[in-house]
């Protein structure tokens, strides 16, 4: 079994999981950036499946070449769609929507690229398609850099970091594309696989999974913070008992609780005994287990 085969299979699995994860996030939170990210991975999945079929199924390679010759602008359109999705993801991270001027610029580039595809000279059509595709890519990179500079002091740190990572990954991919363009093999059936695109997809996939891990950690922290008030309401704890439960959840000792709340250790023990009684637990270990189970139930209920 070749490494290329294993790479294609692993990529398909990674993309499918990412589609499911970001699709689920969009279903729960209704943030457009999640569905745009899922669509990028859907495009990546289509691309890797086509490459797999091209390299391992000779009959498909013949049909693919015929389709590419008959519809030369199809691949350019596919690339432009991915560039647009990157712009939408970046805009979601930076909370920037399309302005009328930017929308007009995109429409002109796409229409001119399509018009160039009608040229009878194949090399002219190829170069023009490449030119306007790269022009849109440069726009996304420049737009992202300008927004990041403007939002440096007022934007959430993690959102700024992920936006910067997205711009850097995309910029490196574009730089490699410039170098590789025009260097394809002269054979009639050279694989359409582009290493820069594959590397950029890999980097974007890693960044997307890092974001998922960060999002999961932040969500767990938010759920944990909201767990104590919810338990207090459910089990009828007093305000004082709720405060003590919060401190117990953080691992504070009886002495630390007494010092923070300006009460005696014996009073702390009395309140803690009442908390244990209402929650039906026998000690700190039982409380920790109960909080863990309640947190798990809230996660399942939310998702």
Summarize the structure in words.
With 303 residues, this protein is an all-alpha fold. The protein has twelve helices and no strands. Helix 1 runs antiparallel to helix 2 and helix 6 packs antiparallel against helix 7. The longest helix is centred in the C-terminal third of the chain and has 41 residues. The chain is elongated. About 2% of the residues have low confidence.
The count of strands amounts to 0
Low-confidence stretches: 182-188
Coarse shape: elongated
Q: If you compute it from the alpha carbons, what radius of gyration comes out, rounded to the nearest whole angstrom?
A: 27 Å
Distance between the termini: 38 Å
Helix % is over 70%
Order of helices and strands: HHHHHHHHHHHH
Total number of helices: 12
Mean pLDDT: 82
Structural class, judged by helices and strands? mainly alpha
Oligomer state equals single chain
What is the strand content?
under 5%
Reported for the largest beta sheet, the result is: none
